[in-house]
């Protein structure tokens, strides 16, 4: 399968950035609608979403990108970080679609924050070229994500809870180790963790990771629950049985998007594309191909 990598220029309020991309398949001679896969965070990288290359086996060109602020895209200065907002990332996505000339026909699979971003794209820009939308493991209200995290953390040993409460800044290694214990149950139940999972998190949380986007507060107080009914594209909502995105966290998407479909993966947590890969890919490819 052909793989193409590069960078897309992006200008926002007079500041110039570069958005890294990776395309699996032939975008120029495509026979099916391309699929843009949007990573979480904010501030992670596309690596952990790499199982979505399986969609190329169904003749969908698959496009990954690293959002500006981390990984292989432009990292931000302190001054540039003040530009960060939901609108910034929506603009980056619009620019990305237009660069490849696919703005009139494309699908999106958005994971976690990526699903939130995709929902904002539809509500803010109407996104008439978006044919089908997959919102995977995403909160509709960020406060409910925090509530769910606290609930799921409660049964863990006290040292794990203490290390997470102490925080990454105070003790990065202790926080990282504790989070990996939590993620083994509620992040990705494939053990040992896939290399791509660890790589994506190292970009923002590793010893030399860039936390600029994560610390920016882009999602603070965020909610789309009162606007989600404006999503007027065919939508599939996904979550896992052990997901931080519990049913009540994703409920607004399921109940308020007209005609939304919902699949819950019973053996998965936050990353069913690793945990139940074949089943997940069959469901997503089937939905996109309808």
Automatic annotation (TrEMBL):
> Which segments constitute the AB hydrolase-1 domain?
34-276
Tell me what this protein is called: AB hydrolase-1 domain-containing protein
Annotated NCBIfam families: pro_imino_pep_2
- Lineage, top-rank taxon, reads Eukaryota
GO MF, any single term: peptidase activity
Show the InterPro entries listed in the entry: AB_hydrolase, AB_hydrolase_1, AB_hydrolase_fold, Peptidase_S33, Pro_imino_pep
Query: Which organism is the protein's source?
Result: Ganoderma sinense ZZ0214-1
Keyword Hydrolase among record annotations: yes
């Amino acid at each position: 399968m052909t793989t193409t990598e590069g960078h897309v220029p992006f200008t926002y309020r007079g500041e110039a950035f570069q958005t890294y991309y990776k395309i699996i398949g032939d975008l120029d001679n495509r026979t099916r609608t391309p699929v843009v896969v949007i990573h979480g965070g904010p501030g992670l990288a596309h690596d952990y979403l790499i199982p979505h290359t399986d969609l190329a086996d169904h003749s969908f060109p698959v496009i990954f990108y690293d959002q500006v602020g981390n990984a292989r895209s432009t990292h931000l200065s302190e001054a540039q970080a003040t530009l960060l907002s939901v609108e910034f990332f929506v603009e980056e996505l619009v620019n990305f679609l237009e660069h490849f000339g696919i703005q009139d026909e494309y699908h999106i699979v958005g994971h976690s924050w990526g699903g939130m971003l995709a929902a904002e794209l539809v509500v803010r820009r109407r996104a008439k070229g978006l044919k089908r939308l997959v919102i995977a493991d995403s909160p509709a209200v960020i406060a409910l994500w925090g509530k769910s995290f606290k609930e799921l953390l409660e049964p863990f040993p006290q040292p794990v809870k203490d290390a997470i409460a102490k925080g990454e800044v105070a003790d990065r290694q202790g926080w990282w180790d504790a989070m990996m214990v939590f993620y083994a149950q509620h992040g990705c139940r494939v053990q040992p963790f896939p290399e791509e999972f660890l790589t994506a998190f190292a970009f923002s949380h590793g010893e030399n990771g860039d936390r600029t986007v994560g610390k920016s507060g882009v999602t603070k107080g965020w909610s789309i629950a009162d606007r989600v009914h404006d999503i007027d594209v065919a939508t599939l909502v996904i979550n896992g049985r052990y997901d931080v995105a519990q049913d009540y966290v994703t409920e607004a998407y399921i109940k308020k998007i007209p005609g939304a479909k919902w699949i819950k993966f019973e053996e998965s947590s936050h990353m069913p594309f690793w945990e139940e890969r074949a089943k997940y890919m069959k469901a997503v490819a089937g939905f996109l191909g309808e």
